[in-house]
From TrEMBL:
<keyword id="KW-1133">Transmembrane helix</keyword>
<dbReference type="GO" id="GO:0022857">
    <property type="term" value="F:transmembrane transporter activity"/>
</dbReference>
<keyword id="KW-1003">Cell membrane</keyword>
<comment type="similarity">
    <text>Belongs to the ExbD/TolR family.</text>
</comment>
<keyword id="KW-0653">Protein transport</keyword>
<dbReference type="GO" id="GO:0005886">
    <property type="term" value="C:plasma membrane"/>
</dbReference>
<keyword id="KW-0812">Transmembrane</keyword>
<keyword id="KW-0813">Transport</keyword>
<dbReference type="InterPro" id="IPR003400">
    <property type="entry name" value="ExbD"/>
</dbReference>
<dbReference type="Pfam" id="PF02472">
    <property type="entry name" value="ExbD"/>
</dbReference>
<keyword id="KW-0472">Membrane</keyword>
<protein>
    <submittedName>
        <fullName>Outer membrane transport energization protein ExbD</fullName>
    </submittedName>
</protein>
<dbReference type="GO" id="GO:0015031">
    <property type="term" value="P:protein transport"/>
</dbReference>
Length: 143
């Protein structure tokens, strides 16, 4: 780029500068760009939408899945056999090393104290179970 610092020596005429000074244009564009970058995420996050309602997805019961039931008295059952907390943990440790690791489905009584369900979840975590699901009744949507 060439720079014009003034008229040549000996000429008393002012020359007309035909080049456009783009420095203010670049400054304004950078300020606008920064403003748009800051305001666009705020605008996109404030859009009012109605989220879909919760839906229960039917689970496919596979023979390798483990079903653990907890009744209203916090008794724990492995399929249909009642087990203690220690026996539950040892069985879960045996299952956790299987490849592929089966899912654990917990069926908790609606009117029971959920301390039993919490014990099952803690035992699953201690045994290293990756997938835990809760079995529920589907919502009756008929009118």
């Amino acid at each position: 780029m060439a720079m014009n610092v003034g008229p040549a020596e000996g000429s008393d005429e002012d020359e007309v500068v035909s080049a456009i000074n783009t420095t203010p244009l670049v400054d304004v564009m950078l300020v606008l760009l920064i403003i748009f970058l800051i305001t666009i995420p705020v605008v996109t996050q404030s859009i009012q939408v109605q989220l879909p309602n919760e839906r229960n997805i039917a689970t496919q019961t596979k023979p390798e899945n483990v079903v653990i039931a907890v009744d209203s008295n916090a008794n724990i059952y492995w399929n249909t056999t009642r087990v203690s907390n220690d026996e539950l943990l040892s069985r879960l440790k045996e299952v956790s090393v299987m490849v592929p690791q089966p899912e654990v489905h917990i069926r908790g009584d609606q009117f029971g104290d959920y301390e039993g369900v919490g014990k099952v979840v803690v035992a699953c975590q201690r045994a290293g179970i990756v997938k835990i699901g809760f079995i529920t009744e589907p919502v009756n949507q008929g009118g």
